[in-house]
């Protein structure tokens, strides 16, 4: 009877080891996903910053063109 108990205990220990191994593998996969997502987030933030700078530049350029157009319209009204 004690041999049966020992076999059951051994099976439970093996099951626990298998579960632990599986969980460790899952943790590694999640760490890799986390790193990948962190890199993606940094790239998106960099793209956002670049787009914000470009947007600001285009707004400034638009303002310059508006001023030129106003100046030309003012000269046309004088004529």
Secondary structure elements and their pairing?
Layout: H1 2-78
Quick structural summary:
With 79 residues, the protein is mainly α.
Kindly describe this structure.
The structure is a single chain. The protein has 79 residues and is mainly α. The chain has one helix and no strands. It has one helix at residues 2-78. The longest helix is centred in the middle third of the chain and has 77 residues, at 2-78. The radius of gyration is 34 Å and the shape is rod-shaped.
The value of Rg in angstroms is: 34 Å
The overall average pLDDT, rounded, is 96
- Overall outline: rod-shaped
> Major sheet: size, sense and barrel closure?
none
Feature tags:
Cell division protein ZapB; rod-shaped; septation; mainly alpha
